[in-house]
Amino acid sequence: MAHFEIKDLTFSYPEAGKNALEGVSLAIRQGEYITVCGKSGSGKTTLMRHLKTVLTPHGCRTGEVLFEGRPLGEVSQREQSAKIGYVMQNPDNQIVTDKVWHELAFGLESLGTDQRTMRLRVAEMASYFGIQTWFHKNVTELSGGQKQLLNLASIMAMQPTVLILDEPTSQLDPIAAADFLNTVRKINLELGTTVILSEHRLEEVFPAADRVVVVEGGRIIAVEPPRAIGERLRELKSDMLVSLPSPVQIYYGTGSFLECPLTVREGRNWLSREMADRPLTTVSLPEEEAYREPSKPALELKEVWFRYEKELPDVLKGVSLKVEAASLHGIVGGNGTGKSTMLKSVCGVCKPYRGKVFLEGKRIEKYKAGELFENCLAMLPQDPQSLFVKKTVRADLEEMLSGRGLKKEEREEKIARLAEECAVTELLDAHPYDLSGGEQQRAALAKVLLCDPGILLLDEPTKGIDSFFKEKLARILKRLNRRGVTILMVSHDVEFCARYADAVSMFFDGGVITTNTPRRFFSQNSFYTTAANRMSRHLFPDAVTNEDVIALCRQNSADEDAIALRRQDANDEKMSALHGQNKGDI
Amino acid sequence: METTAKKKLGRGIIVAILVIVLLIPATLYLGTKLSGRQYYITSLLIILYTMLPFFLAFEKRRPQARDLVVLAVMCAIAVASRLVFIWAPHFKPMAAIIIIAGVAFGAEAGFLVGAMSAFVSQFFWGQGPWTPWQMFAFGMAGFLAGLFGRLGPVARKRIPLCIFGGLEVLLVVGTILNSSTLFTVVSHITMESAAAIYLAGLPVDAIQALATVLMLLAASGPMFEKLDRVKTKYGVMEG
Amino acid sequence: MDDVFSGYHPAVNFLFFIGAIVLGMFLAHPLFLAVSMTSSVLYYLLLSGKGGLKFLRSMVLMALLLSLLNPLFNTRGGTVLFSYWKGRPFTLEALLYGIATGGVFFTIMLWFACYNKIMTGDKFLYLFGRRAPALSLLFSMVLRLVPNFKKKAAVIATARKCVGRAPDCGSSRQRLERGVEVLSVLTSWALEGAVETADSMKSRGYGSGMRSRFSIYRFRKMDRIVAAVMVLGLFFVLGAVFLGRAAITYTPAVIMPKLDWITVAGLAGYGVFLFLPSFLHIWEDVTWRILRSRI
Questions:
Q1: Is residue C68 part of a domain?
Q2: Is the pLDDT of residue B118 over 60?
Q3: CA-CA distance, A266 to A307, in Å (whole number)?
């Protein structure tokens, strides 16, 4: 009997033109690890919410969902609460109470569990998740990753048989995200809990998954094991291929016949085998100009020191940085190294106690209070929602122009132009909170751009948005660069920086350690670099993006005979693989 | 939906009136028998009686998760709002937020938001003998705002709302809080000592009332808009 | 908090504070008042260290002010010290009464200050949440949200500042408007988050039936012993109170009850009760030092 069975489910939201889900059918076995992927707005969340009655959205619905063989509606709320665990995106909003220990017990309290059982379960969970050290803390003192682990632990305390996770790591930094996903995998392996997880970043999830479900436009377009999903997507000519993990993308980009790699390790081995009998004629990309410090930087920090309070330690310890005009400069580095503080010191929110900040060659103190943020500098905050005040995106944009002495037509013209530039024209009359993460990001960007900044600061612009929105964002940023806008961006997103930045700096322990072009920068690093670089560096030391690796593979292509032979081998191998197991690391 | 909310509230009011009519005179009578701190203790008992029915009604209602979170958000905003205006030390927008919550969600919710905000803010700024009075004063502010809100759309218009808010803070909240000072610090209540305390409190109350009026003037529009959005989109606080 | 007493069961904590505050409010007898004042000062200083001196000083000033102001409004009493403003008398009895009131105010304020340090929100919740599950949950939620909103308000203010709308500069009118904007953004954000919190609550079974309560507190042997000592102390104080040894009238004339062994027993009981937390605090300090010196 399937653990969950969705039978021909069709659903539409009230007053919506088209169906959010259409004819979805899927059977999930006990103990399976299912990954759901799809663009934002494809209906992933709607689908997953149908797996728990209290979360099911209102609307018009046909078809049914069976849980352990019974229609979900007939399973009592109590039983569903205990057996079906549901983790949502935002770590903060899911927490109800003020103490860690109380939050751990929240679900058990709702189920009316007696004190002795609760003590035992809470103790078990705290030990399993390593929560003992912060058991007595207030939840406000926790980091985002700890909060999300707490949410998971609080659900696991009820001993669910299935765990549904809707983009649980989108708000976390990469290290916390990997940590969280490892815990989920551990639960799946050690307790046999069924896992249904949706994610944008598939690197960590792919190797763990038994099957990948791809949702597009409210339909399930493919359900395959991770090694086969790429093949299926290629057959369907789906653009979802670009959101798969780097090894998979490179594999399909080169048109290899060997088995599809899922992890960097597999990718590395695969690449070695793939290139084994080819003469490696070209191992590096065309020589690139060395990075030179700009002589006339648009933005410059000179030995900037800062601390939040007199008694506290320094956060910025002599930061020096030059950003070339009309370029996209990325800053990468771990959590809590002071990257965001540096941005704040640039826009004058944090006043350095030593050192200088120059904007367009002029010291920041020389700018008058109003002058700085008009036509000069603007920052897009990490959380774009911090900027939305009004009912519609249009009203929000208009708010920025009020009191500037512009005529109505001028204002409208300007808003229309920037909305076009940021691709939010269709969203102008929507409520800002009804937009998806990526759309909110762009609307906020349009709002910030209304200040006509020459220098734009971005704090984690790719947090929680999928690869399509990232691409769209990159196009907008590049267009701004061409218009002469200088962009300084702080990001955890190594792949994004590698692909789109003009220069990348490493930030560590309150200072900039090194700055270089992305290719030189990432090929020098061995940990802090892209997956593509890590899997190919033994052959192509300076390939940084997926495209680099694919291009180099193509350039070293083998002759026709070798390819024919390889195809034959691959077929044999596939046949034997069908008998053996086809999951996990080779 | 609206009517059921009103009915429930009606029962609460009846209990409250019964308490006021029966228990309070009894307490007052007993109070005269006490010596020493009779003022403080009798008044304390009276406000506790008055608050109890509201709390009981809330418990009996078995509030939904959505009602609880919205109330919690309103309380927390009322408490934290003070920090947004940290540059103006005496500018406390708490009363204005409570009044907005009362008008938007009704008398019962208004009372709870007021009393709970006052109570919680004591945990951040320090408890004292005044805590129950603060709860009572702000609870009343929310409650009366809820009754005022029943006048319909007029209550949401800026001018009537500001007049109501200013008067309420000056006359209701100010008076209750001044009384608490009177009961706590004055050894022997006479006409003169009472007059002195109330007069001394007047400037502070006036500033509070002004702050409330300004806040209502500037914030009531957008706040109602936002509360209504949640109400219609997610069906919060519907009985 | 490294205070020993705060590690005791919340019920024991609460018993102490309710006793100290209620008795402190009623007992204006100079000897009883003196016991309460010294014990509250001692415990407050043990809890807050040197940082508490500022508060202590301001409370002394308030108490002095009250002592001097009260006789202005209370003219009863036989011993006129001096007259002022159309012959209004300033009497010794009223002054003494004023001083007693100031003392009561002082000790109550200090006990409340200690209460704030010991009786945290979760202890309060534990004691009173049983009867009011919805209210106590609401309380706990607000306690979580307030610090959250503080942080978020700062984030929003920074974000607004970086697009040239700093809420802390400009004319008063602009500041008010921009402050309201911050509040408005905060409200939207908070309400949107609240919907998700509600989902998370329902998803974890809230409202699916009777709730039980989890607590991390246990009533241990030491709690029993301390509670017993407190009750014993209270027994003696209340005995003295009901036998009229703690009652006092200041105006129109000072009438002290007689001093005898019952008064002494009452005072001793009061002392044992009020000094107990300080004693535990100091005792632990001393044992620690001895233990450490032996290592």
A1: yes
A2: yes
A3: 45
Dist. CA B134–CA B117, nearest whole Å: 9
Instruction: Specify whether the CB–CB gap between A24 and A47 falls below 8 A.
Output: yes
| DSSP secondary structure letter of residue C255 | B
pLDDT of residue A39: 87
Residue A49 has which token pair?
């919410």
Question: Is the Cβ of C99 closer than 8 Å to some Cβ of chain B?
Answer: no
Segment A186-196, tens digit of pLDDT: 999 999 999 99
The verdict on A384 and A266 lying in the same domain is no
B3 confidence band (pLDDT: 50, 70, 90): very low
> Which residues of chain C are within 8 Å of residue A447 when distances are taken between CB atoms?
163
Nearest CA in chain A to B235: A58
H/E run at residue C270:
helix C261-294
Residue B34 maps to a domain: no
Assembly ipTM? 0.86
Strand partners, C47: none
Q: Is C82 left (phi over 0), alpha (psi -120 to 50) or beta?
A: beta
Task: Report residue B111 as tokens.
Answer: 């009372």
**The predicted structure's pLDDT at residue A95:** 94
- Output the domain CATH number for residue B225: 1.10.1760.20
Quote the domain boundaries for residue A372: 299-534
Q: How far apart are CA A426 and CA A27, in angstroms?
A: 37
- Residue C236 makes CB contacts below 8 A (sequence gap 6+) with C265, C266, C268, C269, C270, C272
At A437 the pLDDT is: 83
User: Residue A63 sits in a domain of what CATH number?
Assistant: 3.40.50.300
Kindly state whether residues C151 and C234 are assigned to the same domain.
no
Chain B neighbors of C74, CB-CB under 8 A: 187-188, 190, 193
Look at residue C290 and tell me if it is in a domain.
Answer: yes
C-beta atoms of C195 and B123 within 8 A: no
Statement to judge: residues A276 and A361 lie in one domain? no
Hey, are the CB atoms on B229 and A431 less than 8 Å from each other? yes
Same domain, A223 and A368: no
Identify the pLDDT of residue C14.
93
| E-strand stretches of C7-94 | 80-84, 88-91
- Collect all residues of chain B within an 8 Å Cβ-Cβ radius of residue A389: 222
Q: Residues C70, C177: one domain?
A: no
Could you tell me which chain B residue has the CA closest to the CA of A390?
B222
* Residue B9 token pair: 């509230």
Boundaries of domain holding C165: 145-203
Residue that the structure tokens 């309460």 belong to: C36
What's residue B5's pLDDT?
43
Which helix (H) or strand (E) segment is C289 a member of? helix C261-294
Which B positions 89-128 lie with beta carbon below 8 A of chain C?
Answer: 93, 112, 116-117, 119-120, 123-124, 126-128
Gyration radius of chain C over CA positions: 26
Amino acid A186: pLDDT? 94
* Burial class of A267 by CB neighbour count within 10 A (0 to 12, 13 to 18, 19+): buried
pLDDT at B38 (0 to 100): 67
In this structure, the dihedral spanned by the alpha carbons of residues A155, A156, A158 and A164, taken in order and rounded to 10 degrees, is 60
Last residue of a domain, one of C156, C173, C203: C203
Q: What is the DSSP letter of A280?
A: -
Interval C158-177: pLDDT, tens: 888 888 777 777 788 888 88
Regions of chain A short of the pLDDT cut 50: 581-586
Round to whole Å and give the CA distance between A62 and A4. 17
What is the per-residue pLDDT across B127-155, written as a single tens digit (0 to 9) for each?
778 888 899 999 999 999 999 998 888 88
B232 vs C: CB within 8 A:
no
Query: Nearest CA to CA, how far is B179 from chain C (Å)?
Result: 16
The minimum CA-CA distance between B178 and chain C, rounded to whole Å, is 16
Sequence-separated (6 or more) residues with CB below 8 Å from residue A191: none
| Per-residue pLDDT tens over the stretch C100-111 | 989 988 999 999
